[in-house]
Structure formats: structure tokens, C-alpha cells
Write a structure and sequence with these properties.
213 residues; alpha/beta; Rossmann fold; seven-stranded mixed beta sheet; 5 helices; 7 strands; 18% strand; globular
């Protein structure tokens, strides 16, 4: 009789040791986070997943965009962050301010943010919960995950559905023409930076008089 264990791949002791070390480090990191009065909204509290084409903004850029969003939304304003979680996290750090915010995001790790998290796949731009009413946000900040016209065009459908008018789009400079075509937005002087340098030049585009010039 064959031994039942034969078809289970055995890890070498070397691999096992490396794995254990990895898990230990991870636990220590998690432990550190909680002991340092860890802020669940700080950028980097959820790590970038490059397979999902995620790149977080630098702290300064996220702060600047969050500040712009609050000003643009006005008192009691509603802000939607579409695939722009680091701006959402910055907005949440300013707790107690007079605005509300939603995050539309494909990465379900962000569901830790509860009711404000809305699962979003740009391939189905209008597949949104019924309680997300059309034109119910004072400003929509969007950062489409891919530099392709198809991705921009589909994300644009979502943006136009959600916004009362104001749009703040962050994407590659190469998308300038398509951004104008699909959303009527123009490039600002402000240059957004990421916590890791991206190969593509990144820019912000708006369709209103913003503070980013």
C-alpha cells in the first residue's frame, strides 16, 4: 500500500526555516504596528500590491490632494476616491473634519474600512451599489490603475456617474489627450510624487479652478 504522505510535496528544512523566519518578522511588524498606536489609515498600513498595479503617493502628495479635495468639496461635502486609496487614507486622518468620503477599490484588503469601502472593478464601471446615487459626490478623485485608453474610458464612466461636476484625475502625462477627450480635464502645474519613483511621468488633471496650479 502506498504511503498516503507520498503525494504531499515536502518542503526542505531550509525552506521551512526561511518561511518561519518570514512569518516571525511579519508578526513582529504587525505587533509593532499595534504597539505604536498604529494608525489604520496611515499610508503603507496596507502594502502596495504591484500585481494590481498599486503605487501609493508620497505623504506630501497625498496630503496635498486630500487638502484640495476638502476645499473643492466644500463644507459638508462628499468625496469619492476611485482607485486612490492613499488619498482616502489621508482624508481619514483628518478625522472630525466636515466632509464624508467613500473609497471605490478593487483590492478587498481595503474592506477593513467598513461601510465606506465599495468594491469596484473598472471593467464594470456602472456596477455600483444602489445606494450610491448618481451625481451625489461634490468631487471625485480618480487614479485609474492602468495607463490605457480603455481603462481611462471605463473609469471615466464611473467618474461621470458619481460626480456633481468636479473631477480630479491623477494619471500619466501621456494620457493628456484622452483625459481631455473623455473627461474634459486639463493638466495642472502640481506634480504628484509616489513613495517609489515611477517610470512614467505622473500628472494631475482637473475640470475646475483648483488650488493645484
Amino acid at each position: 500500500k502506498m504511503d498516503d504522505d507520498d503525494d504531499i510535496p515536502q518542503l526542505s528544512s531550509h525552506t521551512l526555516a526561511a518561511l518561519q523566519e518570514f512569518y516571525l518578522e511579519q508578526q513582529q511588524r504587525e505587533g509593532m504596528k499595534t504597539s505604536q498606536g498604529f494608525n489604520q489609515y496611515s499610508i503603507g498600513s496596507i502594502e502596495e500590491d504591484w500585481q494590481l498595479s498599486q503605487f501609493w503617493y508620497s505623504d506630501e502628495t497625498a496630503s496635498c490632494l486630500a487638502k484640495e479635495a476638502v476645499l473643492a468639496a466644500g463644507k459638508g461635502g462628499r468625496i469619492a476616491c476611485v482607485s486612490a486609496p492613499s488619498v482616502y487614507q489621508k482624508l481619514k486622518e483628518q478625522d472630525g473634519e466636515d466632509f464624508s468620503v467613500c473609497i471605490l477599490e478593487y483590492d478587498r484588503r481595503f474592506s477593513v474600512y467598513g461601510e465606506e469601502f465599495i468594491f469596484y472593478d473598472y471593467n464594470h464601471p456602472l456596477d455600483l451599489p444602489e445606494n450610491l446615487l448618481p451625481h451625489s459626490f461634490d468631487i471625485v478623485i480618480a487614479d485609474p490603475p492602468y495607463l490605457s485608453e480603455e481603462c481611462l474610458q471605463k473609469t471615466a464612466e464611473t467618474i461621470k456617474y458619481l460626480t456633481k461636476g468636479k473631477i480630479l484625475l491623477c494619471t500619466g502625462a501621456v494620457m493628456e489627450e484622452q483625459a481631455a477627450k473623455h473627461l474634459g480635464v486639463k493638466m495642472c502645474k502640481f506634480i504628484p510624487k509616489h513613495s517609489r519613483n515611477l517610470a512614467n511621468e505622473f500628472r494631475c488633471f482637473v475640470n475646475y479652478a483648483s488650488g493645484l496650479d
